[in-house]
Amino acid sequence: MSQIISIVNQKGGVGKTTTAVNLSAGLAEAGKFVLLVDLDPQGNATSGIGLAQENIDKSLYHSLSGIHRLQDVIYSTAHDGLRVVPGTPDLAGANVELVNTDRREFKLEDILSEARHAYDFIIIDCPPSLGILTLNGLVAADHILIPVQAEYYALEGLGQLLKTIGLVKDNIKPDLNILGAVITMFDSRNKLSGEVMQELYKFFPNNVFRSVIPRTVRLAEAPSYGQSIFHYDPHGKAAKAYSRLSQEILSSFE
User: Fold this and answer.
1) Long-range contacts of 72-79 (CB under 8 A, 24+ apart)
2) Is 57 part of a structural domain of the chain?
3) Would the pTM count as exceeding 0.90?
4) d(Cα 235, Cα 179) in Å, to the nearest integer?
5) CATH code at 180?
6) Number of domains forming the structure of the chain
7) 87, part of any domain
8) Residue 160 lies in a domain
9) Which of 4, 20, 92, 106 is most buried, by the most CB atoms less than 10 A from its CB?
């Protein structure tokens, strides 16, 4: 039975999709069988793992809408053991369509149930908002991973996100677990980064991951080549950081 991890932060530009893609690739590199689910209408995780929008005829939208089964919208990637359910701009329509449907916050959980037995991990890249799609991402998950950028405004909105997770826990999914926060875009030369880390420990006293993701040019470039950092710059600092994060997450399930 797979562990389902949703990667959530309603602030954009915090390294959420970068983490979804590279954690998925890192877990696959560690020998796990992984499904990356792109729940974001922008489809950045999809293109970031090398799947061009023009090559997608069926996507997550078609599965959420009941047009296709999940198994019909799963695509292979350049990584052995890593498959992807692509996100496309149609998902923005699902935002509206789901509003008046029964069990609207359970749609993603329902369709993922048919894939749980086939993967070790299912990683969901949620949109940078707290709308109905992200709510589906929270309800479908067993665990929440929150990427937090090492900068002054990063902690703004974190309280709101934790409140939303709390509401889901209280009303829909009591066993939903916050796996922790991972610090992204860290610049060791920047004094502020260290201060943000201290603040973050107040929000998550026991679960800030030790693996810190550095800000690097190669990490920023990789998505434009449709490659994970493990293929684009396998010996660089960022690949090592995501490899450590993958190992840390694996050890938390042992």
Assistant:
1) 74/35, 74/115, 75/51, 77/36, 77/49, 77/50, 77/51, 78/49, 78/50, 78/227, 78/231, 79/25, 79/28, 79/29, 79/49, 79/228, 79/230, 79/231
2) yes
3) yes
4) 27
5) 3.40.50.300
6) 1
7) yes
8) yes
9) 20
